[in-house]
Design brief:
single chain, 487 residues, alpha+beta, eight-stranded mixed sheet, five-stranded mixed barrel, 18 strands
Length: 487
């Protein structure tokens, strides 16, 4: 490990090189650099039989071998790496500049393509340009920055020290593009709804509070776009979706980040069965296009995405894994108590759900639609016509994680109003956030919202699964972290 005094000395050397570059009359931070080709495209176009092929590339120096009158550099851009060969004989006029290069510098190079004796594709450089001098020493283990905390705090270093990190985020981008394309093909409109809301709604979560000075009112960063998207159904947009940020003022964990990406979809004249079909189609398409096969590693498990996926009722799964009948509340409470749940002052449905979380979720490895939830847990959901004790809701679990949540949406304004009131009465009196009933949403329902199915998918968790990422922080470019303690 590099000692602090060594780090200071190396940084001082880099500053001195910066000054020397300036003394040569060269801008160490470059400027416009035209006709750049990606390294991937240069490799693809190279034909060993064709003479005189040239290339122009730009990127970061990740390896530098100085053997006197010949210097070999490995250059990396966002598409890959290529070797540069710099000969003093060819670059006599620029040799003084070249000798000032360091690992981490960003340079541009133009020259002729060829193979070395070992068969390595190389640009034999005829002109080189400094584009950005790096003043900080790269990580000691340049090809594998290992410190997790540093990787998250300095993602900009993590991405070029660990190329697979960039590959993972490119895969994320491609998957989201696939999602958008499928939904647009099906006639959905992508919309944007307010991030700042006067009333936090659409989910049971603690919001972040901010203040608007001009209006002198408190606002909330949204915990869900649901109620605004449903307003669009009332307005006549029958198929809508939004992929955007939600904010929840809650804890950090490998599966939770206070700022996260959620996709919500609403379709008029549909129900939770149609949302189930859409969810399975969408995720299966991602697996087909962006993964290798239908059996994918996630942590210690192999997840089988083969269709059709399992569907099982909430009550059947509770019975299967806890041994308790959902209607035998005394046995449910007894079992929950043995597992450490402080159940005495909690409502029956809350105890049932905590027992479900403790006994069932850890067993849901392969994709499983958990259907027909206890109605009291679902204030925005239509109840089953055959059994009003249950709501037409599903949650999709994969790899023990909840990935999607969907409803047959409640569109009766009177029932919705009563559910809102009931939900507010159940709020913790010690809660330090202000909540109020969204009367405008109830008003919207009074104008008539068509029957609909609604679906929410946690994009970050889905990407975690499909890229075998251990933590949600591995699939968020800049995750929230505690402030760094300065030594």
């Amino acid at each position: 490990m590099t000692e602090p005094q060594d780090t200071g000395r190396l940084q001082q050397q880099r500053k001195e090189k910066l000054q020397r570059i300036g003394q040569l009359g060269i801008d160490p931070y470059g400027g416009r650099f035209d006709n750049v080709e990606s390294i991937q495209s240069v490799r693809a176009k190279f034909d060993e039989k064709e003479q005189g092929q040239k290339a122009t590339c730009a990127g970061r120096i990740v390896l530098l071998r100085d053997i006197g009158k010949l210097i070999f550099i490995t250059l990396r851009d966002s598409s890959g790496t290529i070797q540069l060969g710099l000969s003093k004989k060819l670059l006599e006029s620029q040799w003084e500049l070249i000798k000032l290069f360091d690992l981490g510098d960003v340079i541009g190079a133009e020259g002729q393509l060829g193979l070395t004796k070992t068969g390595e594709l190389t640009i034999w450089v005829e002109k080189v340009t400094i584009l950005a001098k790096s003043l900080l020493q790269p990580p000691e283990k340049f090809h594998g920055l290992a410190d997790i905390d540093i990787r998250y705090r300095r993602r900009y270093v993590d991405m070029w020290a660990n190329p697979e990190v960039t590959d993972k985020f490119k895969k994320r981008i491609a998957m989201i593009s696939t999602i958008r394309s499928l939904l647009q093909e099906k006639g959905f409109y992508e919309v944007e709804t307010p991030m700042m809301q006067a009333i936090p709604g659409g989910a049971a979560a603690k919001p972040f509070i901010t203040h608007h000075n001009a209006l002198d009112i408190d606002l909330y960063l949204r915990i869900s776009p649901e109620l605004f998207l449903k307003r669009l159904l009332v307005g006549g947009m029958e198929k809508v979706f939004e992929i955007n940020r939600n904010f929840r003022n809650e804890g950090l964990s490998p599966r939770h980040n206070p700022e996260f990406t959620m996709m919500e979809i609403y379709q008029a004249y549909a129900d939770y069965n149609i949302m189930m079909e859409l969810t399975e189609e969408l995720i299966s398409l991602l697996v087909e296009k962006h993964c290798n096969g239908v059996k994918l590693q996630y942590g210690d498990n192999i997840i089988d995405y083969s269709r059709p996926w399992r569907k099982a009722s909430y009550s059947d799964l509770l019975k299967e894994f806890s041994g308790c009948d959902i209607h035998d509340i005394s046995s449910v409470r007894k079992k929950a108590k043995t597992l450490g749940v402080e159940e005495a002052k909690k409502a029956d449905e809350i105890v049932i759900n905590e027992l479900f979380e403790l006994t069932v979720e850890k067993n849901l490895i392969n994709p499983t639609f958990v259907i027909d939830y206890p109605a009291p847990l679902c204030p925005l959901t239509k109840r089953s016509k055959t059994n009003p004790e249950y709501a037409e809701r599903f949650e999709l679990y994969i790899g023990t994680m909840e990935i999607a949540n969907a409803y047959t949406e409640l569109n009766d304004p009177a029932v919705q109003y009563e559910n809102f009131v009931s939900q507010l009465k159940g709020e913790d009196e010690d809660e330090d956030t202000f909540r109020s009933l969204d009367e405008d949403f109830v008003t919207a329902l009074k104008y008539g919202m068509p029957p609909a199915g609604g679906l929410g998918i946690g994009i970050d968790r889905l990407i975690m699964l499909l890229t075998n990422a251990a933590s949600i922080r591995d699939v968020i470019l800049f995750p929230l972290l505690k402030p760094e303690v300065k030594k």
